[in-house]
Amino acid sequence: MGVQQLKLESVRRKTGGRIHLTPRAPRSGPVTTLCNQTLAAGTYSAVEDDADCTNCIRRSQDQGRISGAFFAQDEGSELLRLSLEQAKFRKPQRADSPRPGAPERPVVWPTAKPPPEAIPDRLGELVTRGFRPAGEGVWRSPGGVVVKMRKQGKEWRFDELVSEGSVIATRVADGIRVRAGDVEVNPTDGGFEVQLKKG
């Protein structure tokens, strides 16, 4: 399937700057660009202008990156629809038609899922159980809470939490516990532990 068949959308931070490319600009929530930047909910807007981010433009020529970006934004079904639509318009060659009397081979369709990645049980301060990767250092909980991790040296540390639901912050003995949707951030000695809420 040609890369040109996939329609990418342009987004820009509301504060200005470069125009980036993304598979789909969602109506709400964060968006991940082709250059692996994650723009938080409410900080960007979809624009009609052409992209001017050189990384996004370069990566828009890479079919593998675009496919990965569609799957990261749960747009894999759009990829499958486009490839089936393109297959419908292809005319079979005469050599492809089976000879009379030859048994027909069943058509095996590839599944529209990205290859499974080995996800460690823990990534620095994040307990990954139940989270899905949503970009470089970005993880999404089943309830839609986005957790951003930042690499400091060789260690991944909790950086930001984005939730459209209620957030409860409670003082505990060694700091503040934050609960947002189905995610809990607890203070530890010199850091935090981020995980899905227990029970």
What do you see in this structure?
- With 199 residues, the protein is α+β, with helices and mostly antiparallel strands.
- It has two domains: 3-89, no CATH class; 122-196, no CATH class.
- The chain is built from three helices and 15 strands.
- The strands form five sheets. Strands 8-9-10-11 form a four-stranded antiparallel sheet, with no helix packed on it.
- α2 packs across α3.
- The longest helix is centred in the middle third of the chain and has 14 residues, at 76-89.
Q: β content, as a range?
A: 25-35%
Which structural class do the helices and strands define?
Answer: alpha+beta
Radius of gyration: 21 Å
Count of discrete structural domains: 2
Largest sheet: 4 strands, antiparallel
Number of strands: 15
Order of helices and strands: EEEEEHHHEEEEEEEEEE
* Contiguous uncertain segments of 5+ residues: none
The mean pLDDT is 79
- Please state how the strands of the largest beta sheet are arranged side by side: 8-9-10-11
Question: Helical content, roughly?
Answer: 10-25%
Shape: globular
Helix tally equals 3
Whole-Å distance between the termini?
A: 45 Å
Short description, anyone?
Helices cover 15% and strands 33% of the residues. By secondary structure, the protein is of the alpha+beta class.
How are the SSEs ordered, and which strands pair?
Elements: E1 9-13, E2 19-22, E3 31-32, E4 38-39, E5 44-47, H1 54-59, H2 63-72, H3 76-89, E6 122-123, E7 126-127, E8 132-133, E9 138-140, E10 146-152, E11 155-162, E12 167-172, E13 175-180, E14 183-188, E15 191-196
Antiparallel strand pairs: 1-2, 1-5, 3-4, 6-7, 8-9, 9-10, 10-11, 12-13, 13-14, 14-15
